[in-house]
């Protein structure tokens, strides 16, 4: 109990620190982007300048993605829980999910025609799906299959009615000594500039907020399955979580 409390205080402090830095850094990025637009309008046709401006634009876009991830991690963004139909939501982001994949990676959806409604923040939900599918892609450098499934399940542990959403890949798998760390913020095995280690911590935060659970099963050389369980809307578990405070640190 003591350890859990210390751990949660540590995470709160880390959240406040990163949130503060990300917030200020975001403001700086907006100034850079603003001036860049002015520069673009008045720079003429010099191809060297055009390349330089493009490189700055690319870097500021990456910076914006990173600061957004940091803000989500630090929970400085407002969340708006609403009733969501999981199958419909997954179908509606199919194009976004597909667009992040290379030619050698096939995306398959296996969605029950009708799933129970859940209570979740739609944009956080979409981000979580994108994060999971991007990880699946990165685990399949030689190509492969990523399957997203959604169905209703009745569970004993955790007990209750849930909608189960799985993202399954045929990738490299996760080593046993690494699997316990993958949800830790800033843990990444990807090269600098590619991984931030914030994808799965966003997934974990989102699922926790919605009163659900997330589990991972993986086998080296075979692939990985990450499964999210979200409680059916209206059940006690979903209600309790919905009434929890949504922003835990700062107001940005
Ligand atoms: P990032 O993608 O920036 O590294 P994440 O938090 O999303 O951050 O993931 C943390 C780490 O978990 C990854 O660097 C990778 O080592 C591992 N991981 C996550 N998903 C998968 C997957 N589907 N297959 C293999 N490894 C994975």
Describe this protein's structure:
The chain is of the alpha+beta class and 252 residues long. Helix content is 48%, strand content 22%. It has 8 helices and 7 strands. A 5-stranded mixed beta sheet has the order 2-4-5-7-6. It has a two-stranded antiparallel ribbon with strand order 1-3. Helix 1 packs antiparallel against helix 2 and helix 5 runs antiparallel to helix 7. It is globular and about 65 Å long. Bound molecules: adenosine-5'-diphosphate (ADP). This is histidine kinase.
Q: Which labels suit this protein?
A:
252 residues, alpha+beta, five-stranded mixed sheet, two-stranded antiparallel ribbon, 7 strands, binds adenosine-5'-diphosphate
């Amino acid at each position: 109990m003591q350890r859990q409390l210390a751990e949660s205080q540590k995470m709160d402090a880390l959240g406040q620190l990163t949130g503060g830095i990300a917030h200020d850094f975001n403001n700086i990025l907006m100034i850079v982007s603003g001036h860049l637009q002015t520069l673009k309008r008045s720079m003429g046709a010099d191809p060297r300048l055009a390349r330089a401006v493009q490189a700055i634009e690319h870097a500021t876009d990456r910076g914006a993605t990173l600061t957004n991830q940091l803000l989500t991690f630090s929970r400085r963004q407002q969340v708006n829980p609403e009733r969501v139909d999981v199958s419909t939501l997954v179908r509606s982001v199919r194009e976004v999910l597909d667009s992040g994949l290379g030619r050698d990676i096939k995306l398959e959806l296996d969605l029950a025609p009708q799933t129970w409604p859940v209570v979740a923040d739609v944009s956080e939900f979409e981000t979580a799906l994108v994060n999971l599918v991007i990880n699946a892609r990165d685990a399949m450098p030689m190509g492969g299959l990523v399957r997203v499934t959604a169905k209703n399940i009745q569970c004993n542990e955790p007990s209750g009615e849930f909608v189960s959403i799985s993202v399954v890949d045929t990738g490299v798998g996760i080593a046993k000594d690494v699997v316990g760390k993958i949800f830790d913020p800033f843990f990444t095995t990807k090269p600098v500039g590619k991984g931030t280690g914030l994808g799965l911590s966003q997934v974990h935060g989102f699922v926790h907020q919605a009163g659900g659970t997330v589990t991972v099963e993986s086998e080296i050389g075979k692939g990985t399955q990450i499964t999210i369980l979200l409680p059916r809307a209206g059940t006690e578990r979903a209600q309790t979580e919905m009434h929890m405070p949504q922003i835990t640190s700062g107001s940005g």
